[in-house]
Predict the structure.
Amino acid sequence: MSSLPEDIIVDIFLRLPVKSILRFRCVCKPWCKLFSGPDFVKMHLKRGVEKNKFNLMIADGYLYLVDHDSLSSSLTSSSSSITKCDQVSEIDYPYKTRDYIVEILGPCNGLLCIISDKDVICIWNPSTKEYKELPTLEQLEFIPTNLSTTRITYGFGYNCNIEDYKLVRIETFYAPDPYGNSSEVMVYSLRSNSWKSIQDIPYDPSYGGRQPGVLVNGALHWIATRWIGSKARKVVLVSFDIGDETFKEVPPPEHFKNKKFHKNKLGSLRNCLNVGVLGGCLCVLCHLYKVIFVDVWVMKDYGVRESWTKLFTIVQEMVTRPFVFLSLVQTFDNGEILLQKSDNALLLYDMKQGRSRILKIRHIRRSFEVETYVESLVSPNLCTYKKKLKKKNKNKKKNKKKNQKNRGGEYLCDT
């Protein structure tokens, strides 16, 4: 292989799964250096995203994995109204124990941010098995307010301009007049490995339940309610820019003004709208009038209200039973989209044919959440490694011979 041009060798390596690359990186120092380089990591991730080779991670208190090949095989082998996927496995994850359940706070670039009942949050790469435990809020000397908590909402994402991963924690409080309602915001930065508090916001992002923020265009998005006075509320689409750490409202589709979808039978606003990503664009699912049908809107030009386009409407009775709501999980190359129903079911909807089929996952019988991720070499300890590498190079100049065995490539092979 050494006689091949370097660009061809790199192209071959980019086609390999993460498991193979992890084995090959200890073959020799040049390979280890190549696989550890940021350029190779980015190219490998980009290829996985372009090929749409995603895996399903299902959480029902514990974590279960359905890899891309198993899912694809199940989908192509069945064309009936019910598709079964039996190739699912319970997997190990950081701090796994039968005494605590786990929740997924968000996926990004092959990393999953997860939290257990014992309030341990970590950023974890299921493909490489690396993880990083986040400092706890108690270490910040965080002083809780005396107001009553409603719920906590999270968002996890990456901004390529600052090359940093951030976790946003939004805790919503209610209070009687004259104090008013507010949400406290804490932001964790992987680069600095620290939390900080930013400005309180007049939004409640728990409008659609505990759905994590959706990452589009370097910003996290939620359907939220904005308080107008002590009682009045307005439904808005709100974003958090990961780079400058600011909140702002995104112009919504015209259906936000449609009163037929703003109230369900119980007079509640919750779950009538869901935000997602479709074809790389911001997407909103609007459940109209007792969920008799669902409009799917896409913002083709981010930030431009006029670019909202209604792609299609879901009208099937088996999909849109009254007061059963949908959230978008993933799109397939064949034109199907994977949706999760609020009555704990997964279904595949063919956008072109207007037909659907139920996807049943073996062992998954109770309430669950589902996220998708692509295999990647992205390390949750990458920023820490860079700091250690700089310190190591500094010491190397003082005593080159003493530190010759501790070069950066060998450090990564040991992790």
Notes: The radius of gyration is 23 Å. The chain has a mean pLDDT of 80. The chain is about 15% helix and 40% strand.
